[in-house]
Amino acid sequence: MSNKTGTVMVVGGGIAGLTAAWELTRQNIHVELVEKSCFLGGHSIGFTCKASDKCQQCGACSVEEMLASVVNEPLINVHLRTEVKNLEKTDTFKVSLEKSSVQVEDGKVIKGFSVHNSPLYVAGKDCADDDLPSGAVKIDDMGSTAEIEVDAVVVATGFSPFDPNIKSTYGYGKWKNLITGMELENILRENTFAVRPSDGKIPEKIAFIQCVGSRDERLGNLWCSQVCCAYAMRMAGAIKYKDSNADISIFYIDIQNTGKEFPVFYEKIKSDVRFVRTIPVDIYPLENDRLTLRHMVEENGTPDFEEFDLVVLSVGIMPNEDTDKISKVFNIALNEDGFLDDNAAGTSGVFVAGTASGPQGIADTIASSGRTVYETMKYLGVIK
Amino acid sequence: MISEGKIAEKSMDMIEININKDVLVVGAGFAGLDSAAKIAAQGYKVVFACKDAELPDSGDEFKKFVESGMVEIMTNTSLDDFSGVTGDFRATLAKGNERIKKNFGAVVAAPKYSFEPLNADYGVSLNGKVISQTRMEEILADPEEKEKLKAGDGAVFAFFNGLARELDPCSTERALRSILALQDIENCTAYMYAGNVKVASRGVERLFTEARNKGLVCFKPQEIPVVEQNDDYVKIIIQDPVIRKDIELDPDYLVIDELMNPGQENIETAVNLRIDADLDGFLPSNNVHRFPVNSNRDGIFVAYSPNDAANVALRVKELLGDGIKKVPMDRGVVDEKRCTICLTCYRCCPHGAIFWDNGAAVISTVACQGCGICASECPMDAIQIGTFSDDDLNENIDKAVVSAENDSPKILAFCCKNSAFEAAGAAEKFGIAMPAGFKMIKVPCAGKVDVELVMRALVDGADGVMVAACHEGNCKAEKGNIYAKWRVNEISRRLEAMGMDKNKVIFTNIASNMAHEFADKVNDFALKLKS
């Protein structure tokens, strides 16, 4: 891989940034990949496989594969726990990198989800060297402060999941067995089975509540997050496949498609899972860390209470909590939903990829990141 | 410990092969012209062939490439015959009675699809009052017809959307855009009868909110509405579950939703190019490894959207480069003396990488992905996979079984390098407990694991053999896992016939990112073998 044709900085190491970085190297472009956290992979590297004996096309394994490709690619230089402090445009871009403020709790060691995370372990302050797993790196030793020069920038800073505390009637954080969809992803990846955080036991009755934070006019969130129906249904299907006793309900407004062959998928999942067309109003704790949901019964419009062992909030995709800062540093306007405006970029040499510009699933993120790379190459003059 | 049984992939001898740099784009679907222009922009000559007599408005960029000769347009043209392999595809294009032979390095399939009104689902026929979504859009686009709507006392429109089957955000967006346009016309009102309102596309929820704020009433009936219809009258009846009464509406127009229909052109394209389609008839198969534009054949890409066109351009450039491709010399090699051209390999190759020449099958080094399905299926044992030859695999099986700890069941797992091998490696690195007698053999695809390899492991002294594959629908070689499953079933049958425990050999699916699940499966197997 010689005759390098330019250097591009990719900001964000989630599936959008990984895809963009990888695709750029396919075109012999050198990449400086800057990631704020200690690990590459973003949110989606913690996602579980949602297959029964058949693949359900969730794309979690594609993230794993993309990460493996990126870390083995010599044209990509990775800066973990690093942020862009300043960007100055001349003919090229002069970039100041700084250590990000991401911390690990004192005395704690955190682990990456993927075997391709390097380092795999990051230790907080006050960790004795002898206790550290092999290859562990201390948090203070991570981060770049380099000044680099690049020809173009791809901003792939991703999203922040909706903070369920905002929906205070659900009591997230107060009840142990009330978790988010992302937390369930991680539980399934690490435990194979769904387990209750309170006691590690396998729950029998599970509820998913859709549209937590999305499609919410009161909150001003006038978008569908595009991924929650898919992850809820796929995880419900995976749980049911491994434990036929699981009794799963999905509370919803409108079920959204998962991708190709949706009608077939939906028919199958309807036979495994109960669908209830209403969004629960509030959640109360019961004995033994069970939870009761209050909701309207669609058939007659009366309120009803129903008990569950585990309740999963399908939290949506919100603009990255650092969006204001990102918008300023990279000089990118925001769209009406508060995400980065990907139409505004282009001639400036700063491009947006993935969920930084709005909700999308893994498959769409891979496709749109490819398009961003195409536009970047056009800017670089690699193509006419 | 586990790693002892691994095969180090040999470094392969590489050769340089000249490949054709021309590209065929076939089909005038939405992304066809866009793909052609973007590929031409990379400096590759494109032949754009479609059945249509005329092209839709193609934009200035496309015209520029046509004028410069980078894009050659062949209208009224279909693909009559298609053969060859990646980098050297041979197409016969039919234009009237003419047959034109051309060679290409890569092919882009951009078949058209159509929108089919779903009136039959509701038991109604289209007439002046019951109209399709397409007809609705024509009315709104025609100033005269639009003026007529304004002239009267206004009109009531009812939109059906996804009531009888699951549609997509595209259909919702079309309905909402029409509704918003109608709401701008004085005295026009709109109602929507929807199943699942599909809003999972950028901006659609905003349109839905805007339309409702402007007076759209959206019903989500539990049953498909009853529609009464004659020439100048249409009535819609639904039951409201809360008030338990029928709600009746007799709109001036009932607008029927439309389904994206792949139609014949998609299927013909799939058959001609020997690429897979999904259950709905769209290309390619529903397999994550095809994201976003790949097919089961390297060098044949699929494009439906603007994102696809950009990705196709990247893939084409990566593949064709400057026309010289460096490829491993012996990914798959046929022993000409043994080959009887039975064509088993040709039929089972998921990548369309095999052809025949001079009385023997030939495996294209460019197109071959090295999965090894052909090697396992060949009745003459005439095929070897360069980095995973039978000799190497046998040697590794022998070594692995010998080195496995004796006091725990000796388990040999054949692990697909794309999934199980990754998961097992992660389990090891994460320090997840596994039986001491566990060893693995890396294979290019579970489809490479044949009866002989498994039997050899048992004869060598393995207590149990596991064949670990990707999940169905996730195989890079499309069906390698299915071949593996069949073979394990066959082995179990043989073991039983020999009076042995058929459960000594198991087949399992695992994803690359599921280290804990893989360890669970191995530990379960060990427990079963012990009992």
- Low-pLDDT runs of chain B: 1-9
CATH architecture of the largest domain in chain A: 3-Layer(bba) Sandwich
Mean pLDDT of chain A: 95
**CATH homologous superfamily of the largest domain in chain B, by name?**
FAD/NAD(P)-binding domain
Q: Could you tell me the number of beta strands of chain A?
A: 21
The helix fraction of chain B, in percent, is 25-40%
* CATH architecture label name of the largest domain in chain B: 3-Layer(bba) Sandwich
| Backbone structural class of chain A | alpha/beta
> Biggest β-sheet of chain B: count, sense, barrel?
5 strands, parallel
Spatial order of the strands forming the largest sheet of chain A: 3-2-1-10-21
State the secondary-structure class of chain B: alpha/beta
Average pLDDT of chain B works out at 94
Order of helices and strands of chain A: EHEHEEEEEEEEEEHEHEHEEEEEEHEH
Descriptive key words:
heterodimer; A: 384 residues; alpha/beta; FAD/NAD(P)-binding domain; 5-stranded parallel sheet; 7 helices; 21 strands; 23% helix; 25% strand; globular; B: 531 residues; Rossmann fold; disordered N terminus
What does this molecule look like?
The complex is a heterodimer of chains A (384) and B (531). Helices cover 23% and strands 25% of the residues of chain A. Chain A contains 7 helices and 21 strands. In chain A, the strands form 6 sheets. Chain A has a 5-stranded parallel sheet, covered by helices on one side. In chain A, α1 packs across α2 (60-71). Chain A is globular. The model of chain A has no long low-confidence stretch (mean pLDDT 95). Chain B is α/β, with parallel strands linked by helices and 531 residues long. In chain B, strands 4-3-2-8-19 form a 5-stranded parallel sheet. Chain B is globular, with a radius of gyration of 29 Å. Classes of the chains: A alpha/beta (384), B alpha/beta (531).
